[in-house]
Give the backbone structure.
Amino acid sequence: MKLSDRLNSLFRVDQNVHKIVPLFILFLSVISFFIVTLSFLSAGGQLIVGVAGIVVFFLLNRRKDETATLYLKILSLAVSSRYLLWRMIDTLVFQTTFQAVLGIILILAEAYAFMMLLLIYFQTVHPLERKPAPLPDNSDDWPTVDVYIPTYNEDLSIVRVTALACASMDWPPDKLNVFILDDGHRVEFQHFAEAAGIGYISRADNAHAKAGNLNHALQLTDGELIAIFDCDHVPCRAFLQTTLGWFVADSKIALLQTPHHFYSPDPFQRNLANGMRVPPEGNSFYGLLQPGNDFWNASFFCGSCAVIRRTALLEVGGIATETVTEDAHTALKLQRRGWSTAYLSLPLAAGLATERLILHIGQRMRWARGMIQILRTDNPFSGPGLRLPQRICYFSAMAGFLFAIPRLVFLTSPLCFLVFNQTLIAASPMALCAYVIPHFFHCICTSARMNGSWRYSFWGEIYETTLATFLVRVTLVTILFPKLGKFNVTDKGGTIKQAYLDWQAVYPNVILSGFLFMGMLYGFYRLFMFHNSQVVFNALWLNEVWIAISLLTLLLAIAVGHESRQVRGKARIQVRLPVTLRSEGGRLLPTQIMDVSTGGCQVEIAESTVDEWQKGQIVHVLTEEGRLKGEIVWVGKRSIGLDWRYDSLRHEAEVVRFVFGRADAWVDWGRYPPDRPLRSLWLALTSITSLFRFEKNPGAVNQKLPPVKPMAPPRSLPGGKKKQERNAVIVAPKKKAATFCFFLLGIMLPASSWAQQAADASPVPQPAAQAVAAPPAGVPPQDGEPPLPTSDATAPATPDQPSQTQGLTLGTPITDAAPAMVGVHKKSWTLKELGAGDTLMMTPFASIQGLSFGLPKASL
Amino acid sequence: MPLICCVSPKGGVGKTMIAANLAAGLAKNRHLEVIAVDLDPQNMLRLHLGGDVADGHGFVKSVGNIESWGGALKEDSNSGVIILPYGQLSSGKSIKKDSVIRQKPELLWKPLVRMAASPGMVVVVDTPPGPSVMLQAILPHVDLLLTVLAADAASAVLYSNIATGKIYSEVRNVRRGYVLNQFDPMTRLGRIICSGLAEKIGDSLFGIVHRDEYVGEALAMQQPVADYAPLSRAAIDLNNLSDRVSRYLESLT
Ligand SMILES: Nc1ncnc2c1ncn2[C@@H]1O[C@H](COP(=O)(O)OP(=O)(O)OP(=O)(O)O)[C@@H](O)[C@H]1O
Ligand SMILES: [Mg+2]
């Protein structure tokens, strides 16, 4: 029996919790073994027990299956329990109150770490590899979808890309409505939306920020499903067809979340020397924890790149407004009502990562605040509706944001002894070896095995340390006053002209590391200037090692704030896309695109054709789907650079579709070698060089911030200061029949003209193969006098040719026939690579609503 | 070995260009002996393959006298294709020759079939546009009828005429292949028609050739496109076409 089945039968399918007992007994017996040995054995014996545990690890670790992982997790928990027990029983000293308080704080921090270890082990017992569910063959049975793009203060240049991409997703046009939900009340957004045939909704007030914005729209639209994209998450064209199958297949699913993928490096990747060799910070959540949650039916909404069922959402009163993380809270509320959630681990949308550390910090402060708010006001362990595993998963997600204080405790603890001479851990080096080393070993190695290629060992410590000082206040305040708090928008998409140290984002860590450094110096002073007893000597150098590690971590966290130069306003996507380049004179050269953005692209050229290209020349990039116009902005030896030139919104939409539309665009998101702790440690340590990187700008530290857009001004709260009266603006998406005939025409034209329908033929065309009229009898080939076929073609309106003219106009015959033809033209994507079991058949649909895709009759 | 015939119900779609480049492609890639025969009084085929404009020799003068055809054969040293031009003839004489062949079609098809019968030999025939006596004479003996269609609106109709057996009904379906030429992705109509036609034609579609300036330039240089601009889209398209044809030929034997 596979582990997944076994676990299924344990927890999921039937709620027979007592089946969990065997596992639990195993866990208890391993623990009690260690506890028993704890009291019997001498330090030397303990060392042997510790070593034995490590040996068992190596033996088990040779098996690669999930069951072995589970055993290793149990072993790891047992070893850590043993460590914690030892700490509590043997090492606490309470000679003074001061010491007692410090000692207890430290052990509480360790207990927190242990709890998180336990929770995450549980969450990731069997990360579910959910596959896309197929949609019904007949697209009439597909659900209707409203796409919401909430925006507040982001640039139109960002929002329009997302909006155009949403509008050109492959879905029956009559079942897809895209809305920009503008809380910024900007006229130019409305104009854009009208021009693109997209809906525009702007409300009179801004109450409850994003959640309020979504809820307002919820009352005005009527799609069965609601897809939500933050305005900087650009979906690929296959998004809906890949995700919505589950809503048809399982009527209990209220929510389906997909990963937030960022095609630009996050601040850690960009600012740390080895950052690009390490998975992005978000990968462990979207690659591991969410699939893990999904197994327990506890994956939750992350605010964007997700689809929600309207009926379910209405049942819980819309998006939650009580907390600032409305997304997770909404999911929790849905699940309390018995709805299922789903997570599809395929990146089908991509956006820009927060482009500097300070913004990342601001975002995480909001998340932490929100999650702790939920913990306080709607704790998953209390309240109705959830099953135990769900409670655990939700609790884990929220408790994870409490890391700030424990992290600071770990960083600063060695100061207690070095400076204040307070012993927090009273243990001999021998005992330390026997307990601490196995504890760390199992934690690190088992986690590394669990994390695989999603997160690297020791990097999590850097991520946490970067945030810790900022989160302390938020954590404390929110725990005490959970109702406080406002919504910040994370700013994206700028450029950084010069490298600089973002003082604002690192100053607490700089101060802290100053203290630690002084503590370290003082420790050395004590080590070398005094005659210490053996015990004190040992304690001193052990604490020196500890503080050195703390200091290193802090320096790395500071290095993350050393912002590197970022040139392009529109981050380029590294790709290899075959295209054909058409020169001004009409010469065609097949080639490859090397990188691309909505601004332009870089195209490989053969050296022998270099003379063909001149700066300023207008060229066309011919793709499978169409052509994109670009101007050559530079000519290199092996490549040329193009800037896209749009003549119209439709062209812009084509560019967007080309850049972001590909279903398999982001399959590489998890392609990092699996974690090897020592390698990861090396990558982390050597990243310290980033701290000493000075680009053209020696005075970087003192440099003032480049103009950062001010953080979102606080939203007007209802009952707050009266602001200028605003009226809600609502523009429905335009849907002219003629506008979405573009693709259908392609399907229809040959079919109808070959079918040689008489003018009065049924409006539903039959498949052309059968519809081809039988050859007119009585035209047998005569020797030497074959019929003159060309005369047929040139005679315009002979009775058997009327359909040609019909087929080429945008008259009713096409639109009538359109639904019947939908689904005829299928295209297969390499979704196999995405992990989908079978190759998915994608059905292309008429693209942008409202954009005039009509065919000029003159061209005929 | 086989007799390949490039035809099209409509003029100017690129038959001659396809015939010449297919011949060159087959000669280059497959180490076959390729004879390119021009049945069109325009006598243009040779010009695609380095032929001399002033040279008026051709087989047509000596129809009925196969032995003297040899004098008209020209090998293009560059591509290795052996060309049998139509010859320079006044239109009156052309019509006369036509009526000879209408009386005795075997005067044309027998020598061609004989040529094609020798091992390792492929005969690629270029024909005049639309129906013609010459084409009619050899049609029943063709091993691959390659219909060239321009990727334009008229071709949709032409194709349906072929598919319904109004023309070329002498050739069995399995012996038919289609080439879409002058596909212009710059126009939306071009793309729509091309994908629509491609879907209809299905497996019998032997290739799609883009409209590419390099084609005209290659003709001006009297070279196969693959020699003149090997990296060009058209060269790659034409190369794919000859690959496909040679796969078809292999399947025949
Ligand atoms: N794919 C192409 N791209 C650009 N030009 C092309 C292409 N195919 C053919 N042409 C050009 O079109 C013109 C007509 O080609 P060609 O003479 O081969 O046609 P044809 O069908 O043989 O004409 P006809 O019916 O008169 O015999 C030539 O100038 C040729 O260079
Ligand atoms: Mg010709």
Notes: Chain B touches chain A through 47 residues (CB under 8 Å).
